[in-house]
Structures are given as structure tokens and as C-alpha cells.
Amino acid sequence: MTHASRIAGLAIAALLLGGCSWFGKKDEASEPVELVDIETTLDVRRVWSVKLGDDAEFLRVMLRPAGDGNRVYAASRDGNVVAMELESGKEVWRTELELTLSAGPGVGNGLVVVGSADGLVIVLDATDGTERWRADSGGEVLSPPLVTDEYIVISTIDNRLRALRVFDGSDAWSVEKQTPALTMRGSATPAIASNAVIAGFDSGRLVAANLEDGTVLWESLLAPPSGRSDLERLSDIDGEISVVGQDIYAAGYQGRVAAVAAESGQILWAREISTYVGVAVDWTSAFTVNESGEIIALTRRNGQENWRQDSLLRREPTLPVPFNTAVVSGDLEGYIHFFSKIDGTPVARLRQGSAAISAPPTVIGNYLLVQSDAGNIAAYTVRQRAATRNASPESEDEGA
């Protein structure tokens, strides 16, 4: 499958999915690039792994682990929500919701929150997994909920941003934008900047809403629609929105990667890069992957391109996440790729399994958590520098 599988619309999907021509011949130009041996210079080891539940292969749900410093919380497509000890992976509790889950968990304020395919938001107690309440959001939730002291903020597939009260799930406020005729399957993950919720919409607009009452403070057209057809005018803001101080980093499909001022919505800098995975940042750099699968590193201050890595073309790499001295991305065949932050050189590669990795890895302290579409989660750490050796594409990850 290619990134076009995210596009909602059966007629278009029928034309874009798969790797065959009208006559059944293999289209080599659309095939994922083959991996080559690399020189391993970063010693990455698997510490533990846990089976969460059934697989969600090819469904493009946003199920990724989250943590509170001591525990890891994760959810499976078939309704399991699990709490584990961060260092050992030992199961603390498991709640079976008997729902089809599509996003989460979001963690905060002693709560664990997940979203379902039929629009339910379910809130569990982080201590023991007991259910506090559930509420109907009115649309499928495809990004992890944002949990604050007073509100749970969700973004739904029907282009709405909603805040529910932590106490009982009652509606606090909502922001809704017009939905274009054609959109990508996915939602931007809401983020907090000061007292504002930052959200992306399918119209290509980045919006700041007051956390207390939902008042729209500003809007910024990050990915202006262009072209004549609905397909050409796709401009969704999906994936990760990152905030550092008063700077916001976001990206749009067929649009731009940009830094935006949190207080005004003014675009500080922008680069023409089309992506649906969003932007990850550290103190000096911003990282993304374009629609072709190129990993791109930009200087966070001014957007200058530092390097571009094309070894994962058409392998549907996830958002590259900073970890230790590397940035890390999963791919459609279950490989986890580590690239040097400095110049993009491959420094390590592991294979978690044969199932795709669709959600970005999660970093909690010194641990990298990766969840595959098969419903498995594994934790990795970096050990002392390894002796130089070659890593073949077929090598599996190594246990502790």
C-alpha cells in the first residue's frame, strides 16, 4: 500500500492503491525501495516486548504508547488497554473494552483516554484501569486525545475539535470547520501552547482555540489548496504538531512545513514540503518525512535544510522521532531505522516483526517504544557503542 491509501473516497482509492497497472503488470516505480546493508554504529537493544491484542494492519489507526514517567500505557485495535512498567514491560493492569479502538491513549491527570472507531471517548483510571466514564464524540477519533487538568480535547474525522470536561465527559466547547469534498484519512494531534489548544484542519488551516471556552484566537492558512480537481486541492494538516516555547511546528499535505508564532499565528518560516505525518522537533532541529518517503531535517530556528535521506523511498516511513543521537522511523515491513541527527547517515536498523509500523515511535526517558500494526509493543534502549559490523535488511531485533 502507498500513502494514497489514506485518501477517503473509493473511486480515487481504486485508482491509487496497489502496485499494478491496468494490465496487471508490476509497477516498479511504485514499489518500496529495497534496503541495503548498513554499517551499525549505534548499539540499540530490545529490552522487552508485549502482545497487546489483535492486529490493525492497513487500517491506519493512531494507536501509539504513552507514558507518565513510570508506566507505559498502550491500546490495541480490538479494545485492550494495558498499563506496563516502563523498565520491565511487566503488566500492571489490562482492561478489555470490547470496542474497536482507533486512537490513543492520551495520558494525564491520573487518566488514560482512548478513542473508538464509532466515536466513543473512554476514560480509565491510570491507577487500576477502571472505567470512569465514556462519551459520544460524534465522529471517529483518529489522533490521541489531549488530556489537561480540566478538559479532554479530541479531534474527530469530521473536522471538529471538541473539549469534554474531565469530571463527567460533558461538552465544554467545540470548534468546527467546513470539510472539503476530499480529505486524507487522519487527524492532527492537538497540542497545547500556553493557554491555547493548537489544532489542524482538513482545510489546511492551523487554529488556536482558547482552552477555557474554545474561542478561536487566530487562524493560519498553512497549506493553501491549489489546483482544479479535489485531489489536487487536498491540503489536510495531519499528524504531529510540535510546540517548543512560543513556537509551533506543523505541516500540511501538498503544502508546507512551517514554524508559527503561538501568540499570533504569524508564519515565522515555511518550506514547500508535502507530508501527512507532521513534524517532530528537538532543541535544534525539526524532522519530517515527505510523501515520497524522504526523511528531512531542518534547522528549527530558520527552516534551513540540513540533510535529506532517501533510503526509505516508498517504504511509508513514520514520522522520524529524535532519540539519543539519532532520529528513528518505522516502516511498512516492520523495520525500525535509526539515522544520525547530524547528517542523516544510517547508524542502526532492527526489525520488530513483519507487520507494518504506522504510528510514530514514542520516547519516554531513555526508552524508545514502538507499536506495530500487529498489536505488539517493544521497548528499546541504546547501549555502549557497538563494534563496527554490517546489518543486513533481514536481521531481527536482539533481546536484552
Instruction: Write down how many β-strands occur, each being a DSSP E stretch of 2 or more residues.
Output: 35
Radius of gyration: 20 Å
Tell me the β content. Answer: 35-45%
Query: What is the architecture of the domain at 63-176 at the second tier of CATH?
Result: Beta Barrel
What does the main sheet amount to?
Answer: 5 strands, mixed
Number of helices: 1
Mean pLDDT across every amino acid position: 85
- Poorly predicted ranges: 1-25, 230-234
User: What do we call the CATH topology of the domain at 63-176?
Assistant: Lipocalin
Overall body shape: globular
Distance N terminus to C terminus?
Answer: 33 Å
- Spatial sequence of strands, sheet with the most strands: 3-8-9-10-11
- Share in helix: under 10%
Q: Can you identify the CATH class of the domain at 63-176?
A: Mainly Beta
Structural class: mainly beta
Please tell me about this protein's structure:
- With 400 residues, the chain is mainly beta.
- Among the domains are: 1-31, no CATH class; 63-176, Lipocalin, CATH 2.40.128.630.
- The protein has one helix and 35 strands.
- The strands form nine sheets. Strands 3-8-9-10-11 form a five-stranded mixed sheet, with no helix packed on it. A four-stranded antiparallel sheet has the order 2-34-33-32, with no helix packed on it.
- A hairpin with a 4-residue loop joins strand 29 (326-330) and strand 30 (335-340).
- The longest helix is centred in the N-terminal third of the chain and has 7 residues, at 10-16.
- The chain is globular, with a radius of gyration of 20 Å.
- Residues 1-25 and 230-234 have low confidence and may be disordered.
